[in-house]
Write a structure and sequence with these properties.
Its EC number is 3.6.4.13. It is an enzyme of class 3 (hydrolase). This is RNA helicase. It holds the Pfam family DEAD. With 259 residues, this protein is an alpha/beta fold. The chain has one domain: Rossmann fold. Helix content is 43%, strand content 14%. Strand 7 and strand 8 form a beta hairpin. Helix 3 packs parallel to helix 4, helix 4 crosses helix 5 and helix 7 packs across helix 9. The protein is globular, with a radius of gyration of 20 Å.
């Protein structure tokens, strides 16, 4: 470091910038990002002290009510990045069938449900997992109780939308499509199309994907309104980008996802 009165060198400036960057990162907490106290306590109970890169970038945007396209891998902390804003909004406006999370697999659906329940343990959040391989009558009974959060695979959810009496998504305020690239690669295009046609147009939508394929781009244009794109690289670097659509496409046509 340069002594007092001496001009600062390039090395000095770099060291100063690194210290400032490290200090800024250390100061960032869930509370400083805008997460309410009861949810901060839930994060602390899970030993989450510092938000991950995707959480640092996504949470302030989501808490402002913006739609999000998040490009991040599994294990990046993306579930909390969409769960915390949903739970915070649920606190402000308690509503049954408040949010729907679409996932490609039953295993991921159960993992997401566990995280919602852990984060929402202090506010009494109720979740229902709707996936294949589970008795459909039992699921219908769970839906009849009108949980706050539904986590589902697209195929089984469409079964209930078409066949379970009294079940609808008219009160839905939040839609999440997690691992959207995998959802589309598993040939759920038709089911996603049907779901988008029955959920309210006035909603918040989060789309998370490991990759931005042509299919995901088309899904984004059809389901999100002026979203902010948040991308986390392998090295943890983040970029944000604001998208504007002059017209939001409502509903998807079969074959629209073709490469």
């Amino acid at each position: 470091m340069a002594e007092s009165g001496e001009p600062e060198t390039t090395v000095d400036k770099r060291e100063k910038e690194e210290k400032e960057a490290n200090s800024t990162t250390e100061e960032i907490s869930f509370r400083s990002l805008g997460v309410t106290e009861v949810l901060c306590e839930a994060c602390a109970a899970l030993n989450w002290t510092t938000p991950t890169a995707i959480q640092r970038e996504s949470l302030p945007i989501a808490l402002k009510g913006k739609d999000i396209i998040g490009l991040a891998e599994t294990g990046s902390g993306k579930t909390a990045a969409f769960a915390l804003p949903i739970l915070q909004a649920l606190l402000d406006t308690p509503t049954r069938l408040f949010a729907l999370v679409l996932t490609p697999t039953r295993e991921l659906a159960f993992q997401i449900s566990e995280q919602f329940e852990a984060l929402g343990s202090g506010i009494g959040v109720k979740c229902a997992v709707i996936v294949g391989g589970v008795d459909i009558i039992t699921q219908a009974m769970a839906l009849a109780k009108k949980p706050h959060i539904v986590i589902a695979t697209p195929g089984r959810l469409v079964d209930h939308l078409e066949n379970t009496k009294g079940f609808s998504l008219r009160t839905l305020r939040y839609l999440v499509m997690d691992e959207a690239d995998r959802i589309l690669n598993m040939d759920f295009e038709t089911e996603v199309d049907k779901i988008l046609k029955v959920v309210p147009k006035e909603r918040h939508t989060y789309l998370y994907s490991a990759t931005m394929t042509r299919k995901v781009q088309k899904l984004q244009r059809a389901s999100l309104h002026n979203p902010v794109k948040v991308e986390v690289s392998d090295g943890g670097e983040t970029t944000t980008e604001l998208y504007f659509h002059t017209q939001q496409v409502q509903g998807l046509l079969l074959g629209q996802y073709s490469e």
